[in-house]
């Protein structure tokens, strides 16, 4: 399926904006992790996004029927809640630039999920691209944070899991929630998962103590709030809109540019990358391109 002609300019613009916003999200997570735990970063991110979108969510509740609430809760868990915790945890042992590179696995996961779970057609020529992309991912798994090469970095597997969840959600929105607008999907799904995040943040962490006792806590909080508003709220609205006007593989191609932005921020922040990181990045992006090539 190709992107309709009258939507190509809009789709391209959305892709660029999303790439810039999401490419910056990894360095924002890194800044937040200087003070807060991965669980705190993930939950603050969700709560901030929910507060930002709550007025919109309330207005859009009238568009929903009973089945929509369960669908949107599932979408929020797959596409926002669980990945927020997985990425924050992974970045405790991975450079932000490497996490951004590995996020490029999403289109391949989208293709595989679409084929095996949603009955989408599979082109045999895509297999070569999938193999190359997965090989690049393996290289990144063995490339250690701090510029060395060693055994498997198991934290990289958390990023892969998040990519699979993104792929599930992308296909789920496209083929199972066809009647709802992108803004409705985003605002209500975040609203539905926010009580889980708020309960965890206030009931199972020392978030409030850190705000008063830890140096730099308010600045770190600002980075995470910005992450929630831009990378979770605004970007998810744009992303779901892109899903609606294009096809899942085109939409997931936002990850072509994300690694470039993420690596740029990482290098500016003094992160060390070895040649294996760049080989893995080229392999993943090249594999994604070949897998999606018509």
UniProtKB/TrEMBL annotation:
Compartments reported by the entry: Membrane
Which InterPro entries does UniProt cross-reference here? AA-Vitamin_Transporters (IPR050638), EamA_dom (IPR000620), EmrE-like (IPR037185)
By what name is this protein known? DMT family transporter
Q: Name one GO cellular component term.
A: membrane
Q: Which family does it belong to?
A: Belongs to the EamA transporter family.
What residue stretches are annotated with the EamA domain?
12-141, 156-291
Q: Name one Pfam family in it.
A: EamA
Q: What is the lineage of its organism?
A: Bacteria, Pseudomonadati, Bacteroidota, Cytophagia, Cytophagales
| Lineage top rank: taxon | Bacteria
Gene3D superfamilies per UniProt: 1.10.3730.20
Q: Which UniProt keywords apply?
A: Membrane, Transmembrane, Transmembrane helix
The regions listed as transmembrane in this protein's record are 12-29, 41-61, 68-88, 100-119, 126-143, 155-173, 180-201, 221-242, 249-268, 274-291
SUPFAM superfamilies in alphabetical order: Multidrug resistance efflux transporter EmrE
Q: Which membrane topology term applies here?
A: Multi-pass membrane protein
What's the source species for this entry?
Answer: Chryseosolibacter histidini
- Predominant location: membrane
């Amino acid at each position: 399926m190709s992107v309709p002609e009258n939507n190509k300019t809009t789709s391209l613009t959305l892709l660029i904006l999303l790439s810039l916003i999401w490419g910056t999200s990894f360095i924002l997570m890194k800044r937040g992790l200087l003070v807060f735990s991965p669980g705190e970063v993930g939950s603050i991110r969700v709560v901030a996004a929910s507060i930002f979108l709550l007025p919109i969510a309330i207005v859009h509740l009238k568009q929903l029927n009973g089945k929509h609430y369960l669908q949107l809760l599932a979408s929020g868990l797959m596409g926002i809640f669980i990945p927020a915790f997985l990425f924050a945890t992974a970045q405790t042992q991975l450079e932000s630039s490497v996490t951004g590179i590995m996020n490029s696995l999403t289109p391949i996961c989208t293709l595989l999920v679409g084929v095996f779970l949603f009955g989408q057609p599979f082109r045999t020529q895509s297999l070569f691209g999938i193999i190359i992309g997965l090989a690049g991912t393996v290289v990144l798994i063995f490339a250690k944070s701090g510029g060395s090469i060693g055994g498997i970095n198991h934290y990289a597997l958390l990023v892969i899991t998040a990519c699979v969840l993104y792929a599930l959600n992308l296909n789920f929105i496209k083929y199972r929630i066809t009647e709802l607008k992108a803004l409705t999907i985003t605002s209500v799904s975040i609203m539905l998962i926010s009580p889980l995040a708020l309960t965890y943040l206030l009931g199972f962490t020392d978030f409030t103590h850190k705000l008063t006792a830890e140096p730099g806590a308010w600045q770190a909080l600002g980075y995470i709030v910005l992450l929630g508003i831009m990378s979770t709220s605004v970007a998810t609205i744009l992303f779901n809109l892109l899903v609606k006007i294009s096809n899942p593989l085109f939409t997931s191609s936002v990850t072509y540019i994300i690694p470039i932005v993420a690596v740029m921020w990482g290098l500016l922040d003094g992160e060390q990358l070895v040649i294996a990181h760049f080989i893995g990045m080229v392999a993943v992006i090249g594999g994604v391109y070949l897998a999606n090539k018509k």
